[in-house]
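Weekly structure sync, notes
Attendees: PL (lead), two postdocs, one rotation student
Agenda item 3: pending single-chain targets
PL asked that the sequence for the first pending target be pasted directly into the notes so everyone works from the same version. It is reproduced below exactly as submitted, 90 residues in total.
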Amino acid sequence: MSVSPAEQFLEEIVPHLETLDAQIGGIVQVLKDKGITTSEEFAQCVQRAERASNVGDLGLRVRMEYLFSSADKRSTSEESGGAVEFGVAG
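Predicted structure, written out during the meeting:
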């Protein structure tokens, strides 16, 4: 059974995201324990960062969709024995 590029990507990235989540949790706890920040201050910083990253996230999603659709077209073409040409905009 063939694994789609999206499934393969998720299988590879999830462990890294889990590690980052644990590390960030540890950093936040140290900051709180040392009195450097409060939960409220940290929440405000996170909200500002989320707003700032929305544009980057959109760009990343568009790029990933393009890459996955290209891979799907390529695998479909290979299965049918045809050739697929991919143009580069620019």
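Discussion points:
- The helical segments are 5-33, 39-80.
- Residues 5-76 form one domain.
Action: rotation student to compare against the earlier draft before next sync.
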